[in-house]
Specification:
Number of strands: 0
Mean pLDDT: 77
Order of helices and strands: HHHHHHH
Strand content: under 5%
Helix content: over 70%
Structural class: mainly alpha
């Protein structure tokens, strides 16, 4: 049981250091220089572009997975779809890894090694479609180019999927 005298003693104990603290020290606590440095070091445009790519890729992948129903599709079409998804998988994995790094670390930097799967796919397509001058972007531009390709591919696969009944994210409402 807490007595009123105890709470008054605690209040006095907390207030004493606060009252003796000079204004500059209080301001340093409020305006933490490390926090300020980290806050200003983040490139919101870069982070936003990467997160937008990830959100769009997840959206198109979820639509494709919801629309495709292998039990109602021919085996050949299913195999083709999975082959196309397998081609996209390294880049989708890299995109997710970069998004995770932004979310869980203090480094939104993009390393060239992080983009190997994306680069290989885009480079192969560029060489096939523009052999005289294959241009492969780097950094966030490569991520955006890959995302456009992945989302377009998934959109085409979704449109080609048999029109299975779409299930509601909330369920059918039928209790079994």
């Amino acid at each position: 049981m807490v007595r009123e005298d105890d709470s008054l003693e605690f209040k006095a104990w907390v207030q004493a250091p606060a009252e003796t603290m000079i204004w500059d020290q209080a301001q340093k606590l409020i305006h933490n220089t490390e926090f300020d440095r980290l806050w200003t070091s983040y490139d919101e445009q870069l982070i936003g572009r990467i997160l937008k790519c990830n959100i769009l890729a997840e959206y198109y992948l979820a639509r494709y997975l919801q629309a495709s129903n292998p039990s109602r599709d021919s085996l050949k079409a299913v195999r083709l779809s999975f082959d196309l998804i397998a081609v996209l998988r390294p880049g989708l994995t890299e995109l997710n890894r970069i998004r995770n790094r932004i979310e869980h670390r203090l480094s939104p930097n993009i390393d060239s090694a992080d983009l190997k799967g994306m680069r290989n796919l885009i480079e192969g397509l560029e060489k096939a479609t523009n052999p005289d001058d294959p241009t492969v972007p780097d950094g966030v531009e490569l991520i955006e180019t890959f995302t456009r390709l992945a989302c377009s591919t998934l959109g085409l696969l979704t449109a080609a999927a048999p029109q299975a009944p779409m299930s509601s994210p909330m369920g059918s409402g039928v209790i079994s």
